[in-house]
Model the fold of this input.
Amino acid sequence: MIDYNKIIAQKIGEATGIDTKELEGYIEIPPQSEMGDFAFPCFKLAKTLRKSPIAIATEIKEKIETDEYIERIEEKSGYLNFYINNSKIVEQVLTEIDSKKEEYGKNEKEKNETVIVEYSSPNIAKPFHIGHLRTTLIGNCLYKVHKYLGYNTIGINHLGDYGTQFGKMIEGYKLWGKEYDLNNDPINKMMDMYIRINALCKEDEEVLERCRENFRLLEEGDEYCMHLWNTFKDLSLKEFNKIYDVLGVKFDSCAGEAFYSDKIDEVVQMLDEKGKITESEGAKIVDLEYAGINTPCIIQKANGSSIYATRDLAAILYRARTYDFDKCLYVVAYEQNLHFKQIFEVAKSLVDEKYANGLKHVSYGMVSLPTGKMSTRLGNVIKIEDLINGTIQKAQEIITEKNAELENKEEIAEKVGIGAIIFNTLSSSANKDQIFDWNTALNFQGETGPYIQYTYVRTQSVLRKMGKLPKISEIDFSTLNDETAIKTIKTLYSFNDILEATAEKTEPAILARYLIELSQNYSNFYNENKVLVDDEKVKNGRIYLTYAVGNVLKIGAKLLGMNMPEKM
Done:
């Protein structure tokens, strides 16, 4: 595929003597197509060339020529607007899609970098509720996109399977275990026990101390505490995996906090040897004021217990040694911003600069109910299984209403319902808070997952009516020359750039919005151009464009985590 960024940067580089790599980074896509296909802001060169942007634009325009790729160049307000040869890009895009098919948008060569994505990470013995939805789906998308682009990608589910909360669960079981049959509906039973013990801890400090002591015994390998902990963990994982299977989420590792418990002593020793640890009220801490962080990082509690910061540091050390990563992405809510600032700073004393610089917190906004913030302690959560089942049921009702004779309605409703959940979760910027509203999540109109699926189904319906796909050698590319066709083709062209931007900015909403744009552009094309016409050349071109759109929609949706139905 022709890289127009490189072509434009090379032309400007030859005219100015400036490095083309630098120039590539300045090239933009104009907000409106009438302003060109690519734009170069000349104010970026004003300091280097010591001239006004308008003067720079004028000089560059005079020195560069159009060619088979660039049809014309216009200067406006210090910008150079480049208009590419439409017939050339039509041929390039459709030929590329014909060649790569379901691998369109992949890079030619694998990237020689390892990226770890840590996501989902639910707490054992607590329900998997919609508060876990964003980390699970954002992380799953970033994992899939990085892998698709050729990175050596490792997905880790860093389970919350350690900490004082398990001291509480153990104490709760000691007090009320005979009241609960954990073989039946275990998560809800454990959640009820957790709510009860939390309430009791608030009333009785002595009970809270017993919980802390239980966790200390767990860290020391006490047989009774370990048995209960393993029971809670196994029951929880069995329930979590049911949800992961439905959502199509997979991991390469489920090493949770407990996995690093025997690696903590080395972390404490390394920090101590480097003079980083000081004592505060019996606890071991690292003072971070030198880095502008006013809150110290607690490494070890006064009673000798570790906290999750210590276990995260042990994980960083382990991952650096085991995976030799270039990037390690943590998909965790912005409530943990301070925590990650602390451990990333402390990590500089544990691992080489390469690894410390590769750590990134992919923060996202919180999910709340219209009535306020959710809390497992208070029990006011919407469980994922209830959300999934309710959405699928609603999808089936809508599908039945629209097409009562449709076969396999249950299977299609599952794809549409889960697709609606995934797209609703990923289509808004990750750093924004979300209020979960059933009416919004189940809206099948407008910029939604079902709209993308419906557009895909429309493309497949057209292809079925055609019977067979024409060969690329049979396509007269010049027949795809109206505005809606060109706009759709140019959207297809940008697919790899969209994937690269999604990975670089760790923002799945970029890909989600792209799929909406592609769907809308194709709908405009479809509404203005009858596909199955008598003119064979025109028909073949429009059929192939329809195939190309369906192909890219399916690839993009799969990277979001959505499955496409063939009929709706």
